[in-house]
Amino acid sequence: MKLQAPTRLFGYDQPGQRICRLCFGQPIQQRQVVHPGYVETVHEFLPTQRFGVVWWNRRSDGNQHRILAVVEALETGKLGVKIPDVSAKVLVHTMLEQHGPAGGGGPVDRFLLLLDQIRDSGSEPDKLPSSLFAMIGHQIHLTQAFQGGHGSRGWSRVCLN
Fold this sequence. Notes:
seven-stranded antiparallel β-sheet, 7 strands
């Protein structure tokens, strides 16, 4: 029987430039690696473990670009998607993108707020059904599309309630 290597997330915070962080999940192991100018945190996950990742790029013009993904570690050889800063292919349950300032109410902000509410209720996001993350991602995308000036009257209430 072949030993399964864990899926690794390589998190980092390069001050003033780029950030990659674990936003939820329960790794089986974590360790830090010191590099010149930043520290990398390596998070290890076993197949079927779900976790959330946030990437954050700060641009010289003051704008920001953030991406949030909810993914699931896979067994070796399973079909999946290769994403940045993750050692193996994963199953992507949802992915959201946001341009502009943090806290501006964009898709990533909304999802992070929801994660806080889930934790405040006593639940852990990685224990929730994976289908829930896909549904939430779709609702956030729909709400954003209909609030973007394309006949938005009433749609936020329909999508979010």
